[in-house]
Design brief:
Blueprint: H1 2-18, H2 26-41, E1 52-53, E2 74-80, E3 83-93, E4 98-102, E5 112-113, E6 119-124, E7 127-132, E8 142-148, E9 154-169, E10 172-187, E11 190-193, H3 197-203, H4 208-217, H5 219-224, H6 226-237
Antiparallel strand pairs: 1-5, 2-3, 2-6, 3-4, 4-5, 6-7, 7-8, 8-9, 9-10, 10-11
Helix pairs in contact: 1-2
Length: 240
């Protein structure tokens, strides 16, 4: 019943927005309408209010946490059960491959683990992540950063993950996290793991020299920012 009420009210509100002077684009009107609806009707109207609570009791060391980029919540967007939600407080737990939302509430202590099967995609820190639910058995399913290269026929998918290690310091046990990345390339409708240069050359044998030159010219970047190195490499190979 609530879902039907939401859909009816959304149609009315969207009509009102579209009849206003064309100061905003249609996309901006859609975002404003969703935001107004979600904020004014409250968290009980949102479809993702049925996940479990997110808890984290890590005692970390060296500021190495389990989250993507930062352990703070960031503003982002979600597509959940086909429904778009904008300007939502999000956090991505890379260790558990879990997307967390902080709903509209006076208490910032409420954090919800979204049901992964219902998440289609999300955007955080201007990076888009998609939920690859059906991948070959040799690959990990779950959230991947998506980088479209030139056209929809070629895309780089980056799996962000972290390994957990126990560290004893001053007779206390702490948790340390080490990042790891896997790279899948969608080319000619086929996903291929490209974690090293050999695998990349196999996909682009006619560009072997070009690939070797890129590795040689970007050794420092590969050491300091492996993800950016791979993004630039695939764009370079495809001349974008």
């Amino acid at each position: 019943m609530k879902k039907l009420q939401k859909e009816l009210l959304f149609i009315i509100l969207l009509g009102l927005f579209l009849n206003t002077p064309k100061i905003f684009s249609q996309n901006n009107n859609e975002v404003l309408t969703y935001n107004w609806f979600d904020k004014n009707l409250g968290i009980e109207s949102l479809n993702f209010n049925n996940g479990s609570g997110h808890l984290n009791f890590d005692r970390t060391i060296n500021d190495h946490h389990r989250y993507y980029n930062t352990n703070e919540f960031k503003n982002g967007n979600i597509t959940y059960e086909g429904q778009n939600y904008y300007n939502i407080d999000l956090q991505y737990d890379i260790f558990n491959d879990q997307l967390i939302v902080r709903p509209y509430t006076e208490s910032y202590y409420i954090q919800i683990n979204l049901i992964k099967e219902k998440v289609d995609s999300f955007k955080i820190d201007n990076e888009k992540f998609v939920n690859l639910k059906e991948v070959p058995a040799t690959f990990k399913s779950g959230y991947y950063e998506e980088v479209i290269v030139g056209n929809s026929n070629t895309a780089l998918y980056i799996k962000h993950s972290k390994a957990q290690e126990k560290v004893i310091k001053d007779y206390s046990v702490f948790v340390d996290y080490k990042p790891h990345f896997d790279y899948l390339l969608l080319k000619d409708n086929k996903l291929t793991l490209i974690n090293n240069k050999t695998e990349i050359v196999k996909l682009y044998p006619d560009q072997k020299r070009k690939i070797n030159d890129f590795f040689l010219m970007n050794k420092d970047l590969k050491k300091t920012n492996q993800v950016l190195f791979m993004k630039n490499l695939i764009k370079y190979i495809n001349n974008f």
